[in-house]
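In response to reviewer comment 3 from the previous cycle, which asked for concrete evidence that the modeling workflow produces usable outputs, we include below a single protein chain processed end to end. The sequence was submitted unchanged, and the resulting structure tokens are shown without manual editing.
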Amino acid sequence: MDFSLTEEQELMLAEVKKVCKEKIAPRAEEVEREGKFPKENLKLLSDMDLLGLVIPEAYGGLGMDFMTWSLIAEEISKACGTTGLSFGANLLCVYPLMTFGTEEQKKKYLVPLAKDGVGAFALTEPEAGSDAGNVKTIAKEDGDSYILNGRKIFITNGGEASTFIVIATTRPNKGARGFTAFIVEKGTKGFSVGQHFDKMGFAGLSNVELVLDDCRVPKANILTQEGRGFRVAMETFDVGRIGVGIGALGVAESAYEKALQYSKERIQFDKPISSFQAVQHILADMATEIEAAKLLLYEAAWLKDNGKPFEKVASMGKLYASEVAMNTTVKSVQVFGGSGYMKDYAVERLMREAKLFEIIEGTSQIQRNIIANYILKGK
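The workflow returned the following structure tokens.
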């Protein structure tokens, strides 16, 4: 595997780093403090055509690969974890449309998403989290439509999105084999945003309840075909794990860089604390773990781009990167000492943000189940 950047990637990445440093990173504390969805940041990304990064050129996107997406998402997440997660959640709407959508669906929904749209993916319910096969939202056939009734929770981008992929069951007696994926537009009668969830971290990230109350969706808005929704969800989650892992990586890198800089500036016993071996070992562990997480995630993206099985490595990358993010942010707070526990320094925020990555897109325990299943089958 060769992770060398092409000239196009280097130029694009340089531009993204500049915008992240000058525009996005300075807003990160404000986004958290005010619980403010980062619309300005997403507008910047839209102006750079980055919301359509992996969308084919035929539908208004840049047609780039997942390695390029990962490199750019990493920089965004390093600058502002909230913006990074919103950017990643958008992919969960874009990818199933790209993969399973009809030509008409792609033209109707991918084109605006590539320009300036925000998308969301809605599977999670009160009884369907780790048990993704326990979806209770019902879709009943009615002429040339389906009537959807149910409730989704913790939907990222849900309060801001224009396009949603909603998983519902059309055959409740069939379990996961009865799931169907629907494209639902904002403003559809019977489809509304309910509770906005108050979280430990990521105060500016839109995570909401979605309510479907006799929501009529035309049959033309079914992705792939009736009864194939679980496949849509699982393939989307496989790609989504790369995205979540990259988000965790960005948060870890931000915490590490802040700790490294602080260790050079903080003077104790007439020396910078970076001169003490105890601090040096903490920094060395952080740097090593981050590099290992990065290589796993880059490998997963490379495998995906080259048409090779990537699912196991994606789970490994998501698992390891999320735990590295938690470990790194805790260690960063330790390097800062008492100051790290104060809201005056970003590492306190980063530690709260890191925990989410061990939970979303499949908890660390679920990732271990997935990995074990692959290795026990000799894959």
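The first strand starts at residue 119 and ends at 122. We consider this sufficient to address the reviewer's concern, and the full set will be provided in the supplementary archive.
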